[in-house]
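Quarterly update, task 2.4: 3-phosphoglyceric acid-bound model.
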Amino acid sequence: MSTVWIVTEKPFSKAAVDGITKIVNAKGHEVKLLEKYTDPAQIYEAVADADALIVRSDLVTKEVLAHAPKLKIVVRAGAGYDNIDLQAATEKNIVVENTPGQNANAVAELVFGLMLLHARKNFTGAAGTELGGKKIGIQGYGAVGRHVARIASGFDMDVYTLAANPLRPRPADDVSEKAGVKYVDSLKELYQTCNYLSLHIPATAETKGSINYELLSNLPKNGVLVNTARAEVIDEAGLVKMFEKREDFAYLSDVAPKNKDLIAEKFPGRFFFTQKKAGAQTAEANNNAGLAAANQICSFFETGKSAFQVNK
Ligand code: 3PG
């Protein structure tokens, strides 16, 4: 019998935890749960007997791994795995997986929640604008980006993204043709073209700080940046400069910047930050990602194979 720990500061729904437990128990393994922890030391204690670990945005550091002598697999129930020290995991022969696509629709729906809130003046009753007929640029055309394209076409928006990368063919479930997605050749052109620019890129060495003033300043009048991806991709000084130089600019984000208090003080009414990262926080996304994580762990225990490994 193996021990699967679910370690989530932001808990899954109870139904998702029950679902994970059912899958894991059916294969003869046990589930243990640590939620809403306040100190990394609680994780260190928890993972001492862990064979497998399911996390969300929880930090799986070298120290966490050092406290988990039996650990064989970590599954990030979600898409982005920048919270996991891949190098430390690889050094310890620990497999790291994600569950790509499982929470993508939830994140995409939040993009429209944020845009509607802003377009309708925070539902204050003041005359707002409509999304229909506006242009939305999708930077990062992965699982979330494709859902954004699909929903945007339902709003009658014009959808743009970067031209296809010949080295990375589009996946079979690409909806771009149906959604009428148009392609541009450069990021600059994407920003110049679109009223709304929605970020769906991971936080990597290449992307961190890449959304800077130079790029943002290409947005047309009343341009809106929507970030449901990662705070780290924003150059925060560049963001402040954009707010200062462009009184028409607004920023809507599910991943508030470190300088959010300064932005709130200096640029009231031109931003919206969720109280806690909420993109994947739906019953459906919790179930999809949580159950996928449980199934992936059981399959790894059974076959030793991992179709979703990200630290090969
Ligand atoms: C992801 O990368 O899957 C999303 O950012 C969701 O993160 P969360 O599970 O911490 O809500």
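Highlight for this quarter: The longest helix spans residues 283-303.
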